[in-house]
Amino acid sequence: MLKVDHVTKYYDKFLAVDDLSFEVKPGEIFGLLGVNGAGKTTTFRMIMGLLDSTKGSITLDGKKIDYSVTDKIGFLTEERSLLTKLTVKEQAIFYGTLKGMQEKEILEKLDSLLTKFYKREDKFDLEKFKNKKIKELSKGNQQKVQFIIAILNDPKLLILDEPFSGLDPFNVELFKEEIKALASKGSMIIFSSHRMEHVELFCKKLVVLMHGKSVLEGDLKKIKEAYRKKNIIIKGDVDIEEISKIKGVVSVLEKADELEVKIESIDAAKDVFKFISKSKNITKYSIEEPTLNEIFVTKVGESYEE
User: Fold this and answer.
1) Which of 89, 239, 277, 286 is 20 to 30 A away from residue 218, measured at CA?
2) What 3-state DSSP class applies to 249?
3) Smallest Cα–Cα separation from 42: which of 61, 56, 26?
4) Which CATH architecture has domain 2-223?
5) In this structure, which topology does domain 228-288 adopt according to CATH?
C-alpha cells in the first residue's frame, strides 16, 4: 500500500503541498487532480523519492521510498521524457537496465507490449519500428512508447500524468485496457488528468488539490451523492422559458434533441416532473448525478473565492 501521511512541502517560504494525506491499495486506480500549479507535480516527485517532504511521510508497503524501492515504480510524465536520439529499442534497454532488468527480459517484454499496442502481425515491420529513433515518431507513437517504457518493469506503483495526451480514440481504448489489466494484477495506480470523463472511467477514489491543499477527497460515488445539484435529462416538447421559471431550476441547456435541466437539489425534481407531465410527447425523464467535471469546477471555484 502507498501511504501519504500528513505531507507538507515548502520551497523556502512557498507552501507547495499542505498537509496532504491519502492511501492507494493494491489494485486501486486513484485520482490525483487539480489545476496547473495545484501541487500535483511536487506530490509525484515526493512519492518517487526525488524530493523530500518538509513534514509528514510517504511509504510504500510500510517502507520509506528510496533507491531500493524505486525499481518498483513506473512514471509517465505529462511532458515528453524520452531520449529522442535513441531508438525505441535503445530507450527500452536504457530504462529497463536502470530498473534492474536483464536485457533478454527487456526485449521480450518490449516485443510483447509493442505487438499489443501496434497490432502488427509482420515481425519485420515491428523490427523496423523498434529501430526507429524516438524523434522520427509521431506525437501519438511517442506517447505510446513512453507508456510502454513506464510499464516495462511491471511496476507495483504506476503514476500516470495525462496518459492520453496526443492519442486518438482507438489508442485511448488500448491504454484503458492495459491500465485496467495492470490494476487487476495488483498494481497501485495514481491517475491524473484534466479530462474528468477519463478520471470517471477509472477512479473510485480521488483527491482534488488547490494551492497544495485537498479541497475534495474520498469515494467518487459518495462525493456525487453528497453534491446537492442534480441534472434532469428531458426529451420531448417542453417550454424552455416556463421550465426555467420553476423554483430550484438553475439553468436549462439544449443538447441535440434533449434538454439538460440543472436543479439546486433533488427537492426541485418533483416540481419539474409535475410541469412536464402536462406536456406532450415526453419520451425521456431522467435524474442524473452531476459529472465530476461540474463538481471539480464548483469546488475549485469555491477555493479561488476563499
Assistant:
1) 286
2) strand
3) 56
4) 3-Layer(aba) Sandwich (3.40)
5) Alpha-Beta Plaits (3.30.70)
